[in-house]
């Protein structure tokens, strides 16, 4: 049987760690032609070494030039799948939320994907799939996560708009909504805070455990594939049932 992504051009932002890297590995195994981005030179080198068939570039979604740089890196190539996965989290109590924290997170998590999609939209092939990574923080209402949750809620709203705008070209846009996934994404927390946070989340997850990066990536690959050819403007939680209690 021909692999699902044989000969397909797939672009993933934020693909040198966590869910993005897990997805890139699986896509490479299924025959995809990959363009991957990251911001950490050591991780970029590691991903390039591990996935030799991929092209891995430095691209910082927080900068205004990120979109045009991504388009330039993909020049002359059509895109069958675009996974806008780059993002980061920071937390602060209400009283300590300042303009610097707000602007930095909005730049990376919202402006970045908006400008990147805009810059490569003409590269999207007819019938292409776009996946946007959001977060269950949008629904959880956890303390100190207001700005991060707002950025991820903005992506869900944007994705629904993109789905309507791109539908005449047969392009689907869906949102991956990870919950508690075992990655280094919460490295900004000290060990005690992280352990307490994760234990609190797991206590509310019906499946009673944290998910793996591979489990989240598998859902993203479904949405990128032709198996999801009649799925658009949807949100897919990968959270062990956390947001459906």
From TrEMBL:
<dbReference type="InterPro" id="IPR036291">
    <property type="entry name" value="NAD(P)-bd_dom_sf"/>
</dbReference>
<comment type="similarity">
    <text>Belongs to the short-chain dehydrogenases/reductases (SDR) family.</text>
</comment>
<protein>
    <submittedName>
        <fullName>Short-chain type dehydrogenase/reductase</fullName>
    </submittedName>
</protein>
<dbReference type="InterPro" id="IPR002347">
    <property type="entry name" value="SDR_fam"/>
</dbReference>
<feature type="domain" description="Ketoreductase">
    <location>
        <begin position="8"/>
        <end position="184"/>
    </location>
</feature>
<keyword id="KW-0560">Oxidoreductase</keyword>
<dbReference type="Pfam" id="PF13561">
    <property type="entry name" value="adh_short_C2"/>
</dbReference>
<dbReference type="InterPro" id="IPR057326">
    <property type="entry name" value="KR_dom"/>
</dbReference>
<dbReference type="GO" id="GO:0016491">
    <property type="term" value="F:oxidoreductase activity"/>
</dbReference>
<dbReference type="InterPro" id="IPR051122">
    <property type="entry name" value="SDR_DHRS6-like"/>
</dbReference>
């Amino acid at each position: 049987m021909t692999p699902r992504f044989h000969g397909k051009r797939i672009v993933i932002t934020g693909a040198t760690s966590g869910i993005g890297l897990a997805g890139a590995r699986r896509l490479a195994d299924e025959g995809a032609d990959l363009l991957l981005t990251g911001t950490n030179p050591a991780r970029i080198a590691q991903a390039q070494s591990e996935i030799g068939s991929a092209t891995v570039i430095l691209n910082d979604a927080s900068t205004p030039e990120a979109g045009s740089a991504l388009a330039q890196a993909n020049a002359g190539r059509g895109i069958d799948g675009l996974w806008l996965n780059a993002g980061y989290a920071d937390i602060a109590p209400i009283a300590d939320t300042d303009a610097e924290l707000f602007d930095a997170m909005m730049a990376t998590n919202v402006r970045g994907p908006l400008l990147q999609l805009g810059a490569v939209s003409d590269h999207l092939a007819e019938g292409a799939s776009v996946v946007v990574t959001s977060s269950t923080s949008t629904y959880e209402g956890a303390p100190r996560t207001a700005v991060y949750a707002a950025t991820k809620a903005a992506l869900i709203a944007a994705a629904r708009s993109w789905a309507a705008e791109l539908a005449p070209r047969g392009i689907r846009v869906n949102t991956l909504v990870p919950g508690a996934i075992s990655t280094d994404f919460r490295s900004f927390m000290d060990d005690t805070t992280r352990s307490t946070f994760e234990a609190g989340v797991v206590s509310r997850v019906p499946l009673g455990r944290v998910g793996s990066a591979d489990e989240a990536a598998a859902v993203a690959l479904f949405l990128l594939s032709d198996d999801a050819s009649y799925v658009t403007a949807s949100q897919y939680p990968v959270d062990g049932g956390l947001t459906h209690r």
